[in-house]
């Protein structure tokens, strides 16, 4: 085997973005943009419908250890693999998860920040970018109603929830003298910490409890009303039971936009219970955070200003590219509890420097705030809010449309933009309707023609639409629901034939011509 090191100079010189390659960068990005734009314009269904076997063969067929093929060929090959088989969230047939079409100004900002490659962990790496993010944090906390709040951008709602609960844990593990508990006292108290949340809270709450080293039974379920919203009376009872059994209520997690139903817990009444018990209230508004700029629905978040911390996902109802989220706190001291210092990064003696790594769980961190900044400047907060209102109005219209549908049965209401339903006309049993949910979803997904989600509500499997495209019309949704009906009809018909002891034979099939001898052709 040769021991001569490979000559990478030509590849390195041609590939790295710098002054000398600025022209090549412009040409490359222009070709990529033109290709992606043409694909957007040509989309006719949410995705290609290729099987996992077909996609695996395509992926495994690429030689990642071979010699380089050059930038143009590599991008062309990548587009044929990725863009040809991606899921297009802008297509009217996509209505599955909390994915949105993205604002064009944000996409432009994404290109800018990716090329410049700022890391906003320390001020000396980011300068004005840090100041812009700090301004946006202040803008968001003001929209929430925090008079002097703080926060930091994160990778998504899971990280935002984890960070908020970490801050809540550190507050709960602070002694009467204000010092951080250590040793046996800390371990003993940490074992008694409890998080109170409903069954509809995001799975990241339970995951955070595990990451934070809490007990296996640390997440205490709180009862809900018939619509799946946290019941304040049940919260009061759960807080009392926690104290009675020796637990310490570390935090209550309320949800402003549950993933399934899109409902909002009664925040004002919950804050009253938390204030009375002196318990940290975290509001997970990953989904419903866009209501902060809604011209007509901001009142649904009444009481959020009294929370201790809030999660907002801008890459959901602010129509930003992934990723863009933030954790916001009412009291800046709460984030300070989670700070960590390193001599090579953010030494204590430089505490006057604006180093956001003091606030963040991440060190290297993208300047994702630039996307929201640019969108706000392009269309204003009312423009974003109007788009959210449009999808909420659409969901209300779909609910009205299905209110007396003979086949598709609404399961529950929503405060935001979800529609949960089952295919169950007269004569279809509960068990048959249960079995249809994954089957219908799979048929639609495998065809590539529509994307719907499935979930479980009150023990029953359901189909779910999550409407986050303000350009989609009621007729577009009706077409998706027609596909649902057609798939269900076909599945039921197939099962009926399979169950027959004597299925129809070819010699009696009405569409087959007979020969003179009576045999089917």
Overview of the structural elements:
- The chain is an alpha/beta fold and 521 residues long.
- It has 17 helices and eleven strands.
- It has helices spanning 9-15, 22-42, 52-60, 71-81, 104-116, 123-126, 128-144, 157-172, 183-190, 203-211, 232-244, 267-277, 314-317, 332-336, 369-402, 430-447, 474-499, and strands at 150-154, 193-197, 219-221, 248-255, 280-285, 309-313, 325-329, 408-410, 418-423, 453-457, 460-466.
- The strands form two sheets. A seven-stranded mixed sheet has the order 1-7-6-5-4-2-3, sandwiched between helices. A four-stranded antiparallel sheet has the order 8-9-11-10.
- β8 (408-410) and β9 form a beta hairpin.
């Amino acid at each position: 085997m040769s021991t001569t090191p490979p000559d990478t100079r030509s590849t390195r010189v041609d590939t790295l973005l710098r002054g000398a390659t600025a022209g090549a960068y412009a040409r490359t990005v222009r070709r990529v943009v033109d290709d992606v734009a043409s694909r957007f314009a040509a989309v006719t269904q949410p995705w290609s419908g290729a099987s996992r076997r077909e996609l695996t063969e395509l992926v495994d067929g690429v030689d990642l250890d071979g010699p380089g093929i050059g930038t143009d060929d590599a991008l062309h090959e990548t587009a044929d693999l990725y863009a040809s088989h991606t899921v297009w969230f802008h297509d009217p047939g996509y209505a599955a998860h909390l994915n949105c079409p993205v604002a064009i100004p944000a996409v432009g900002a994404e290109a800018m920040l990716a090329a410049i490659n700022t890391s906003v962990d320390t001020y000396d790496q980011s300068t004005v970018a840090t100041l812009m993010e700090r301004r946006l944090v202040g803008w968001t906390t003001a929209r929430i109603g925090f008079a002097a709040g703080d926060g930091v951008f994160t990778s998504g709602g899971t990280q935002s929830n984890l960070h908020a609960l970490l801050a809540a844990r550190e507050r709960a593990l602070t002694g009467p003298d204000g010092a951080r508990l250590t040793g046996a006292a800390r371990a003993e108290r940490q074992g008694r910490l409890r998080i109170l949340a409903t069954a509809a809270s995001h799975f990241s709450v339970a995951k955070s409890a595990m990451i934070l080293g809490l007990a296996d039974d640390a997440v205490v379920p709180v009862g809900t009303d018939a619509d799946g919203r946290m019941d304040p009376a049940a919260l009061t009872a759960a807080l009392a039971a926690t104290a009675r059994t020796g637990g310490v209520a570390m935090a209550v997690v309320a949800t402003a936009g549950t993933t399934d139903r899109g409902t909002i817990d009664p925040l004002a009444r919950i804050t009253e219970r938390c204030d009375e018990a002196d318990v940290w209230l975290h509001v997970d508004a990953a989904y419903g955070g866009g209501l902060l700029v809604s011209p007509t629905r901001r009142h649904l978040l009444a009481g959020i200003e009294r929370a201790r911390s809030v999660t907002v996902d801008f890459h959901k109802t602010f129509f930003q590219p992934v990723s863009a989220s933030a954790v916001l706190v009412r009291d800046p001291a709460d984030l300070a509890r989670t700070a960590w210092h390193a001599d090579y990064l953010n030494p204590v003696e430089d505490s006057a420097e604006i180093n956001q790594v003091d606030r963040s769980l991440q060190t290297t961190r993208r300047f994702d705030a630039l996307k929201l900044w640019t969108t706000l400047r392009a269309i204003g907060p009312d423009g974003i809010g109007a788009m959210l209102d449009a999808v909420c109005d659409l969901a209300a219209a779909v609910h009205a449309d299905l209110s007396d549908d003979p086949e598709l049965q609404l399961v529950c209401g929503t405060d935001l933009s979800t529609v949960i339903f089952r295919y169950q006309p007269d004569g279809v049993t509960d068990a048959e309707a249960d079995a249809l949910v994954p089957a219908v979803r799979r048929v639609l997904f495998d065809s590539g023609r529509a994307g719907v989600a499935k979930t479980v509500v009150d023990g029953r499997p359901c189909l779910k639409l999550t409407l986050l495209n303000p350009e989609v019309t009621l007729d577009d949704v009706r077409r998706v629901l027609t596909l649902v009906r057609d798939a269900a009809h076909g599945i039921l018909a197939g099962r009926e034939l399979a169950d027959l002891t004597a299925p129809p034979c070819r010699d009696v099939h009405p569409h087959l011509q007979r020969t003179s001898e009576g045999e089917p052709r």
